[in-house]
Design goal:
With 200 residues, this protein is an all-alpha fold. It contains 10 helices and no strands. It has 2 domains: 106 residues, RNA polymerase sigma factor, region 2, helix turn helix motif (Rna Polymerase Sigma Factor, Chain: A, Orthogonal Bundle), CATH 1.10.1740; 84 residues, Arc Repressor Mutant, subunit A, CATH 1.10.10.10.
């Protein structure tokens, strides 16, 4: 079913249409939340908050053409707010994100499958080594598939900056992936040998 029709049916109170909309968008929302929070439980909490907000905002004038960009912006902002609250109220003990089992659902989650693959785990880890802007551009452009103009709007950054940084971000990511691959294979870079850094 086309997104425009699905949204219209949701606005008319069609519960089946709402369930279909959630199923269609849940992996995208969870994926954004996980990339920002780094924790499955936090990503699930953020996703729930986002869908509550979406449900309450169904009557707003968000058309199908701009819905996904709006949803990603909402997911990003909710994730950042969640991180701020978490920092204000730190957990009793910190647990490494790698040690937390992924969110269990009755339906296979594409984001979980993405993270389960060893190569893509490596990419996810490499993303954490990028600057915040580069990381967000990769997330929004390469993973979420948003247009440069939507990314510029979400990040409140000039379009020209986004376009110029997009290629640079991909190169930075490729370099980080290569470095992590070499470390994992037991081949530290020359810089690591000089500085005595531990391999992963």
């Amino acid at each position: 079913m086309e997104l425009s029709l699905l949204l219209e049916r949701c606005r008319l109170g069609d519960e089946l249409a709402w369930e279909a909309l959630v199923r269609r968008c849940q992996a995208r929302v969870y994926g954004v939340a996980y990339h920002y929070t780094g924790r499955a439980e936090d990503a699930q909490d953020v996703a729930q908050d986002v869908f509550v907000h979406v449900y309450r905002s169904l009557d707003c004038d968000v058309d199908a053409e701009h819905f996904l960009a709006w949803l990603v912006r909402l997911s990003r902002n909710a994730s950042i707010d969640h991180l701020r609250r978490r920092k204000a109220r730190p957990p009793a003990s910190d647990i490494d994100a790698q040690e937390i089992p992924y969110l269990a659902t009755s339906v296979p989650n594409p984001e979980e499958q993405w993270l389960a693959d060893s190569r893509k785990r490596l990419i996810h880890r490499a993303l954490q080594g990028l600057s915040q802007l580069s990381r967000e551009i990769i997330l929004l452009r390469e993973i979420q598939g948003l247009a440069h103009s939507d990314i510029a709007s979400i990040l409140e950054t000039p379009l020209g900056t986004i376009k110029s940084r997009a290629n640079r971000a991909r190169l930075e990511l490729a370099k980080k992936v290569l470095e992590l691959s070499q470390r994992k294979a037991g081949h530290p870079s020359a810089g690591e040998k000089c500085h005595g850094l531990h391999t992963i």
